[in-house]
Amino acid sequence: MLRERRKKFRIITWVYWFLLVYIMAALIWWFISLLNKTREISLLQQTELRQKVDSLQSPFQYSHELTRIRDLEARQRAKYVGEGVTFLGIIIIGAVFVFRAVRRQIKLQQQQQHFVMAVTHELKTPIAIARLNLETLLKHKLDDEKQKKLLSMTLQETDRLNTLTNNILITAQLEGGGYNFSSEKMDISGLVDKTIRDFSARFPQRIFQSQVEDGLELEGDPFLIQLLLNNLIENAIKYSPIDGRITVSLTATGERINLMVADEGPGIPDDEKERVFDKFYRVGNENTRVAKGTGLGLFLCKKIAADHRALISVNNNTPTGAKFEVSFFQ
Questions:
Q1: Among 38, 111, 294, 300, who pairs with 76 as Cys (CB 3.0-4.6 Å)?
Q2: pTM for the whole thing?
Q3: For residues 282 and 122, is the Cβ–Cβ distance under 8 A?
Q4: Cis check: omega of the bond before 269, within 30 degrees of 0
Q5: Would you give the DSSP letter of residue 187?
Q6: pLDDT, tens digit, for every residue of 284-321?
Q7: In terms of C-beta density within 10 A (0-12 exposed, 13-18 middle, 19 or more buried), how is residue 215 classed?
């Protein structure tokens, strides 16, 4: 299917460039044709003038008529050149605009198709795992330790499913203006501490390191801030090796509260650091990517940050990995 889409895109591109070249060639042909016609008319008028030279009253009149004919030719040539350059410029500008718009539309369509496939996979996987675990509990008598492990895995998958559905629904509501924004004073230090404890319980094999300054308060929507924090930490888990450290810090600098989530994964190339916040965008090639995701998490983080008058950015972590920073201005 991907090969067919690429083939179709190449055909459309070739047709587009053929039509563009044809239009420009036709414009140039008509331009040259008009210049030749103007020259022929001017030469014909000059020939007629020379034939009537004997009937003119004075040599001065001949010179005046010849100058008029040549000036008329020059004005016509200047008019055609001006019109030709104007139309050529309009065609080029329009062609570039249309080409870029079509490319953006095709790229968006491809991203949406990848998103649908990713969502389908992301929905089916936790449902299938949860169902398998529950069926195992029903069919087999397991000891307490194995039951606890299966139930813990099932809870992890339901949390993953809950995060995915929240991302999709909240993104649609925020973009459509249907979300009722709630602004209240919250204990963001307590929120970050609780979130880290929850993730440590859900992923006991992961290494979490935290540095949270006590007593920090933030004006905003608690649900959206929680969603932003969840997405940043889950993104770090997704791209970090199993033995990689995930660092979360919350500090205050003057009137600014800084939230930072860092991982020790492969990091993000410099030319993709801004694009990771685009809707549906994911780092790497669609054909070789192994990390799960839909391309909505970081887009939603940027949207939530903007709604709270905050700035979000990504930088390189040391020695390796990515570091996401959110600055809330009070």
A1: 38
A2: 0.60
A3: no
A4: no
A5: E
A6: 544 434 455 566 788 889 988 988 889 999 988 888 88
A7: exposed
